[in-house]
Specification:
By secondary structure, the chain is an all-alpha fold. The protein is about 60% helix and about 0% strand. It contains six helices and no strands. It is elongated.
């Protein structure tokens, strides 16, 4: 179950073999990988996609350091996800951070 969840989340996020994030095409990727059940998988991702990590102090860290902290936090909170899925979440956070 966890392997399938990680695979589905990696697919949604557009991760490659090491992680990463592709910020478009989620729907097409999910429909291709999970015909007829893509929406069910996506509904299971809410808690992962809502995880936030507001940086505490930009004077003592940068975006890359904050991404690593987010990745560690996600790994700790979501042990059911594999390292590639966690990295993809961290990359998504970094890409989306404003």
């Amino acid at each position: 179950m966890s392997d399938n969840l990680s695979f589905a989340l990696r697919t949604y996020l557009g991760a490659d073999g090491t992680g990463g994030y592709l910020p478009y095409g989620e729907t097409a990727r999910m429909e291709s990988a999970f015909p007829g059940s893509a929406h069910k998988w996506v509904s299971r991702f809410t808690k992962y996609l809502e995880l936030d990590h507001p940086p505490s102090d930009w004077n003592s860290s940068d975006l890359a350091q904050e991404q690593r902290m987010f990745e560690a936090k996600a790994a700790r909170l979501f042990p059911e996800l594999d390292a590639v899925a966690v990295n993809a979440l961290a990359c998504r956070w970094s890409y989306s951070w404003q």
